[in-house]
Hints:
- The chain has 353 residues and is α/β, with parallel strands linked by helices.
- Helix content is 46%, strand content 16%.
- The protein has helices at 3-24, 86-92, 114-133, 145-156, 179-186, 189-199, 204-214, 216-229, 235-246, 254-266, 268-271, 303-306, 309-312, 329-332, 334-350; strands at residues 40-45, 48-53, 65-68, 79-81, 84-85, 97-102, 138-143, 161-167, 275-276, 279-280, 290-295, 318-323.
- Strands 1-2-6-3-7-8-11-12 form an eight-stranded mixed beta sheet, with helices on both faces.
- Helix 3 (114-133) packs across helix 4, helix 6 (189-199) runs antiparallel to helix 10 and helix 8 (216-229) packs antiparallel against helix 9.
- The relative contact order is 0.15.
Amino acid sequence: MSAIDEIASLWMEGATRTLDAFRTGFGATMDDPPPATRSRVIYESGLVRLRYYQARGANKHRVPLLLIYSLIKRPFILDLQPGRSVVEYLVRQGFDVYLIDWIPPRPDDQWRGFDAYVNIDIANAVRAIQIHAGIEQVSILGYCFGALLGLIYSALHSGNVKNLVSLTIPLDTSVRQLPIEHLTAAMTARSAQTIVEMYGNAPAWMIYSFFSTLAPTHHLLDKFVGAYRSPRPGYIDTFRLFERWFHSDVPMAGRIFLETGEMWRENSLMKGTMKVGDAVVDLKRIVSPLLNVIGDRDDIVNPLSSEPLPTLVSSADKQNLHYPTSHMGAAISSDSLKRLWPQIADWLGARDD
């Protein structure tokens, strides 16, 4: 089968899935595994469900931490299982953790763009935290596309942000070395508009086929070799949970899909020309301490795309933190949980005053 035939086959299969999704409703059920860490929902509105994880231990930090994950997959990768959970680790280090559990967009949510997600959903979530915790500022940690959203929010609402951690952020879109960067560059405005006109929102099946096609090597290697040969205790359970997350794609609201494509093509966030609502996103307005975490083995976000961020903000306290991990390894590898996340926690703890 040629590459063109294979792509056509994927899209035909996806069209069938989409018709089924329209029949049953996008995001009608959340088939997440049981959480590793106890939480409760303290706020829900728009497309935000805000989960609160209470700090444990004697050394509780004053500033709460808001986690913002990507829009296109479920966030349970951050709380995968006991002993392999970013949320569990941060809570045990004394942080009150709040997680935005994005509600998948339904067909009538296609109008939602960056303005709705940042100036309504994230802004309301931060306000809910301010009221719940009785504080004025929060620390924000964004992951991948969630890091983009957190960065944009920090530029537009800088007074609410105490510290900013960006993790594997896709920023400089002029960098085009990885397959995902070439494919993204090939998506024209007309192609993106056609998708939205056909489906309203970018379908979940399309997002899944996009990423599974671009990053098949580590996925298939784990599936057919690692799961059966690894001597590590509990590896099979971890693999099955990761596989479940890998298939947890959700639709992307039509407008933000179009706006993301425009941002990618024009590199507008990097250049300082991107508009969200009526405001230009000027990264120089960010003055909070910044920790920019870069996965040196990232096969989804090129490290070179993340590196320029500290040069674009006005923060006096800013740095890049390079770590030898892949895109998802930053969240679930035992090495990252033992070595990378202690550095992030120490950095935040040192700036808790």
